[in-house]
Amino acid sequence: MTYDLRRLRLKGLIVRVPKSHRYLLAPLGRRVALFMTKSFSRLVRPVLHRVDPQLPANADDPLRRAWLTCEREIDRALAQARIAA
């Protein structure tokens, strides 16, 4: 934990409250946290939804087709190497 706090402090994301063991978000830390939250909700979550294994295999999404092709090739390579998945 100390290592992580030190790294965040040195990068300017958090500041230590004097004479305590507490930390606060620095202005840059707030901006980074907001950026990461919005990136996840607007980019990562929708992309992961598109490759959801519960969706039908014949979906008309190019990302879905590419993901399924990648999964099939990995399964084929594992079968050839005789590795249990």
Question: How would you concisely characterize the structure shown here?
Answer:
Helix content is 62%, strand content 7%. The protein is mainly alpha-helical.
Question: What can you tell me about this protein's structure?
Answer:
By secondary structure, this protein is mainly alpha-helical. It folds into two domains: 1-43, no CATH class; 51-85. It contains three helices and two strands; from the N terminus they run αββαα. The protein has a two-stranded antiparallel ribbon with strand order 1-2. A hairpin with a 6-residue loop joins β1 and β2. The two termini are 34 Å apart. The mean pLDDT is 89.
Report the major sheet. 2 strands, antiparallel
Number of strands: 2
Helix and strand pattern: HEEHH
Tell the overall outline.
elongated
Helix content: 55-70%
Rounded to the nearest angstrom, the distance between the terminal CA atoms is 34 Å
Helix/strand structural class: mainly alpha
Low-confidence stretches: none
Amount of beta strand: 5-15%
How many structural domains can be distinguished in the coordinates? 2
Major sheet: arrangement of strands: 1-2
Q: Compute the number of helices.
A: 3
Rg estimate, integer Å: 21 Å
Residue-averaged pLDDT, rounded? 89
